[in-house]
Amino acid sequence: MAYFSGEDEVVMQTMLRQLFQSVKEKITGAPSLECAEEILLHLEETDENFHNYEFVKYLRQHIYNTLGSMIEEEMEKWMSNQNQDEESGYDTVVQHVTKRTQESKEYKEMMHSLKNIMMVVVESMINKFEEDEVRSQESQKKIQKEKSNSYCTDNCSDSDSSFNQSYKFCQGKLQLILDQLEPGQPKEVRYEALQMLCSAPPSDVLNCENWTTLCEKLTMSLSDPDPVFSDRILKFYAQTFTLSPLHMTKEIYTSLAKYLKLYFLSRENHIPTLSTGIDISNPNVICLLKKVRLLNEYQKEAPSFWIRHPEKYMEEIVENTLSLLSVKHDQGHLVSQKILDPIYFFALVDTKAVWFKKWMHAYYSRTAVLRLLEKKYKSLITTAVQQCVQYFELCEAMKIDEILGHSKHCGNKQKTFYYSGQELQYIYFIHSLCLLGRLLIYTQGRRLFPIKLKNRKDLVSLTDLVVLFTQLIYYSPSCPKMTSAAHLDNYSPASMVTEVLQILCDQKECAIECLYNNTVVEALLQPIHNLMKGTKTAPNCSETALIHIADILARIASIEEGLTLLLYGENMNSSGEKSSTGAHIIAQFSKKLLDEDISMFSGSEMLPVVKGAFISVCRQIYGTCEGLQVLIPYSLHESIAKAWKKTSLQSERTPTPVKCLESVSSVSQESQNLMAWEENLLDDLLNFAATPKGLLFLQRTGAINECLTFMFNRYAKKLQISRHKKFGYGVLVTQVSSTAAGAVALQSSGFINALITELWTNLECGRDDVRVTHPRSTPVDPIDRSCQKCFLGLVNLLPYPAVYELVGNRELPNKAEYSLREVPTCVIDIIDRLILLNSEAKIRSLFNYEQSHIFGLRLLGVVCCDLDTLLLLEAQYQVSEVLLNAQEENILENSESHRDFIIDGLSVERNHVLVRINLIGGPMERILPPRVLQKGDDPYPWPMFSSYPLPNCYLSEVTKNADLKQDNDLGKLLLCFKMSDKQTEWIENCRKQFCKMMKAKPDIISGTALPELLEKFVLHLSESPSECYFPSVEYTATDANVKNESLSSVQQLGIKMTVRYGKFLNLLKDSAENDLTLVLKHCERFLKQQQVPIKSSLLCLQGSYAGHDWFVSSLFMIMCGDKEKTFRFLQQFSRLLTSAFLWLPRLHISRYLPADTIESGIHPIYFCSTHYIEMLLKVEVPLVFSAFHMSGFAPSQICLQWITQCFWNYLDWIEICHYIATCVFLGPDYQVYICIAIFKHLQQDILQHTQTQDLQVFLKEEALHGFRVSDYFEYMEILEQNYRPVVLRDMRNVRVQST
């Protein structure tokens, strides 16, 4: 490039022109020179054609020719140097080579050469540009004189002439322009004056003293018959709107609005009528529409900046607008001859009233708009309502063929030059609809109702208006079928009304006031009523209309208040028919649709979509406990499962496509539709798992595996769980994993595998697709934030039913060697690799040994809070022994007599877990060491140990249970048992006396008094036929008969644990172990007589009850180790309904349960007790219920754990006694009320731990501090009064729970 010829210069100029021509719009749109420079500097980032420009190609080639060889040499040097050391990243190479290149002599010479060349080229281009500009101006003046009607050249203020004029613009020039704009002046002079005005900066013009006069003159000139002149004035207005501050543009806007108002009020102007319609090719109409459109564009832009200016400016704009839109012509003549008002033209340019939406968005402007509407311009709202009413009356009165014209224009793209009167009325209706819909969102807007209409006696209330909207959905015509879907959705009346109602539904306060009442719901359900009765529906109630209705109903059902309305009606205590509420009608209709029992839609292509829409409404209902209770009679799960099986068979039979393209397309579309419908049905079935009882129904359908596979596929694709669900899959997974079949289905779906793989990736590997520029930071928390989600997921996944199915009877791999690439895939692998690290091979296989092992120990600590899980892991893997050995290896031997434990994160964590799994007791009965070190000289004062027994410091001091003196109230209660003439009366007396004692002196109900009370009360109940729920079973086995029978290893360890706890409480003696063993053997044989053999792949159904019998252990301790009294009590107690809910093994594969319930492996405590706990929790402690959902955890899982182990480790012994006594005396439903009372007691803690995102860990690990059953007795009595009829009835139905 030493030589630069003239030809090279021309080529370079051509390349630069191409570049500038391509970026012209971007540069001219820049507000300043600095912004234009920024645009050019970042052109490569913003312009996708950047590398295609000839100038860019030229520069790239020039750089390569000049510097290419040097760059390659530098790269080779760098790589050879690095190979001797360690490998380096790509970014480092680039940085190094770039730095060396920029510092080189060749680079500096190249830049100097390029700069010189570009200076020559640019200077030449500037000179040529100035010559061209002068020639252009001369040519333009010549053209202007020859063609006076033609448009001027571009008047942008960035040309030289504009700048020169703006500098010279002054007061005198404005006066000259005023004189030249006089109507008497020649056309050319007026054009010249207007051209000069457009070229001047608007701020200079508006700041002149004669501005007001000019404004009036311009307003008058807007009526000039010459369209070119009028257009130039509008152009000046547009420039002013764009470039001037609000206080200036306000005046322009006001003048234009006032001009239009006068224009419409003047009788001299030829404004079209409804009968003639609007021909938008007419010059007068074009001119008018341009003015309206300019005003409308400013309306839409003004809200973005008017908040920065005084309120009076905004109010003046609002008032002038409303004043213009309220203009009405004399209504004396016929409607067809009515002159069109301004609102029709605004509706034409802004059909969906976007201007009103923007004005109503901010409180600043909304207040002014609503105040003026209420005080001065309410007629605007009245006419909008009137328009909607007229349109509805037209739809109702006329046939479809006659009114299709109203909506036909929405889909006809070819027809763009003429709008008939009917079409104008329809456009105005759409505008009115959108305006009213936006108005109803706001409280002050709703206060404008009721509205008084002409020719109508009654006022139009909010409810009337919403009902009108609803009726429009199924009365209004649809667009012709040949129209495009996009246009149909945008402007068809049903779609527009649905869009408005959707917005109202999404605003809770507005929905409660407008939608949540019986009248609106009845209007929505009217076509469904008619379809089910077989009567003639609204003439146009198509499938599309039903889909719209279903969408609105689904939105109503997704909000608590709306759901309550659908379930129980507006008056919950109404004596009306139960089946008449919205939920019942929707369920009946959905069932008929699924069964294809509605002839009107037979063979319709849209039928699956209609079905899906209404099942979606049902899904919102049966996805809640209270909703499911209402829909149980309709057996929707069976209908949906039947439809799914049918669809699944059809999809398997879909023919293979042949060569013909049309055939391939139709078969492919049919296959896709079938697949979509099949997935929709699986999703509907899956949502039954949102509640405990719903999960039972799902398992009965036999589709749980397919549903969970579908769920996992959506989860893996990170798809939303459902359109109306606010949270993710957490609650569903927690519910499902609380059952054995659910856990197995989760395993087979791949969900557990994916979760464990994700955990291992975060814990051990790190992501492969992330370039490592610096090492990961060392975690400071025991569980790093990256692993927290996986940790909580595993906690949710591993209640005892799941653990038993996934781990039961399976050995650990315990391999001699583990590959570093070997990733765990199941729960057994997690136990083997993270929890029980009993070999060097396991430790060496971990990259982050301490971090990973602490994670495993934390998981073990949470999982073992479920005592059955603890016993299972102890029985199968000797967890305690492994941890004790690890502690032994962590000892530092200073001398022969002195041994110190090394205190580190792992030893502290192991110490905590060992104490937790060895000690049984409530909050006041055991002391757990902390998991963190303390500040000071002695960071960990708690003694560590490597063998049992535990140091005494972990044992709380428990006072020996001494018999309390006989109390008068206790005497009265015992006296009740002697007066048994009237069974019902004495039962009530006993219960009243028990309640009185629990409220006043709860401590009396303990010690030796409690067994006596329980024995006598249960004896009386078992002798009363009305109180017996189960039949009497004859049992004759003796101790000798059962002595040789064996108990499971879990039961044997549970016996040791019970005796240890009983001895700690001074309730049991050393010989108690043999006695409890005999009691449990008798119980197994006694219950086996009432069981049915069942073939199942579930481990929990193969043989005896899988866990330990905590109720019998508790009762044995209450009876102070008396085996005869304990078993005699259990025999009598087994006849009572309460036994089904307190004594879990009582109904294990019991013949008293329906076969499908037995096969599900779900206990009545889960599908009945915890179901009602969730249902009542939502009503009684709604914040806690919401906290559970936000945490992705289900109350049913923790309640099942509490109840299964009789609150061991969660309550002190006396409270456990009170729990059992309360349920025995007052009924099994008190089990539900006690759990609600616990949640009420824990409310603040639950809310706090929801924020810290460890709710499930808190509930499982922490005892129920400060909770006493007696403190909540009055509250539980209120719960009994409100809910006992429903809860107890359902508990009594467990034996016949077949629907």
UniProtKB/TrEMBL annotation:
Cellular location(s): Cell projection, Cilium; Cytoplasm
Any single Gene Ontology cellular-component annotation: cytoplasm
Cytoplasm as UniProt keyword: yes
InterPro entries the record matches: BROMI_C, BROMI_M, BROMI_N, PHAF1/BROMI, Rab-GAP_TBC_sf
Main location: other
Domain (BROMI N-terminal): residue spans on this chain: 12-138
Taxonomic superkingdom: Eukaryota
Keyword Cytoplasm carried by entry: yes
SUPFAM superfamilies: Ypt/Rab-GAP domain of gyp1p (SSF47923)
Domain BROMI C-terminal Rab TBC-like: 863-1294
UniProt record, GO biological process: non-motile cilium assembly
BROMI middle region domain segment(s): 173-845
Keyword vocabulary terms for this entry: Cell projection, Cilium, Cytoplasm, Developmental protein
Its biological purpose: Required for high-level Shh responses in the developing neural tube. Together with CDK20, controls the structure of the primary cilium by coordinating assembly of the ciliary membrane and axoneme, allowing GLI2 to be properly activated in response to Shh signaling.
Subunit structure: Interacts with CDK20, which promotes CDK20 stability and function. Interacts with FAM149B1; may play a role in cilium assembly.
Name recorded for this polypeptide: Protein broad-minded
Species name: Lynx pardinus (Iberian lynx)
Phylogenetic lineage: Eukaryota, Metazoa, Chordata, Craniata, Vertebrata
